[in-house]
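Q&A log
Question type: sequence-to-structure
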Amino acid sequence: MIQLERVTKRYGTFTALHETDLHVRRGELFGFLGPNGAGKTTTIRMVTGVLRPTAGQVRIAGTDMVVDPIRAKRHIGYIPDRPALYEKLTGGEFLRFVSGLWGRNGLRIERRIDELLDLFGLEEWKNALVETYSHGMRQKLLICSALVHSPDLIVVDEPMIGLDPRAARMMKELLRAFADDGGTVFLTTHTLEVAEALCDRIAILTGGRISAMGTLDELRHQAAAGEADLEAIFLKLTGSEQAQEIVAALRESDAA
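Response status: OK
Response body:
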């Protein structure tokens, strides 16, 4: 579903992503992890067609994102970490607007809108202006907008931000069910417990390069991490163990 072939992205003399190869299969819930500044956001923006790669190819469902971006983007539903919505539209109007961008309207879309709003407890707010929504409600509406045109691929950046516990659990179940039903999820998060619980495979990005990729067991093998959990593997691969050692040393110093 997602194919990156020797993809590089430069900003002037700075290289944010170095000749990266990445294949994400249909029906897979794929985690894309890394510390701040590793190149995750740059990669997501190229996958969704917001940025063009400096070199290499990005293909979505076999379509080159640069050659035919409209066709490639039809497959994608994008859920960013910060909701950016048209506040002077109602929730229902916003979802109709998004549907219209993909040439979809009519009774079938109205039913789809009602189903999604009901799923996230927003049915009573369908005709209320978005400016009256709380942050959590806006995040839920954004999730609805990513799903309203029935995409094959969902790209999710920090999916649980702003969601209450019930909605967060529903979101995890929805992503898992979407992948189990043949859809593809490309997920980035700093909540490693979520990635460990949900993802079929995981790539860890460090300094614009993939340092490890595979199932949890494969990551353990690549990191020589025994039976460690994802957090320990992540810290080892990204060099964050040093910070832990410093904190431990400080604690020992205080104790002395």
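Response note: Residues 2-75+151-255 form a domain with the Rossmann fold fold (CATH 3.40.50.300).
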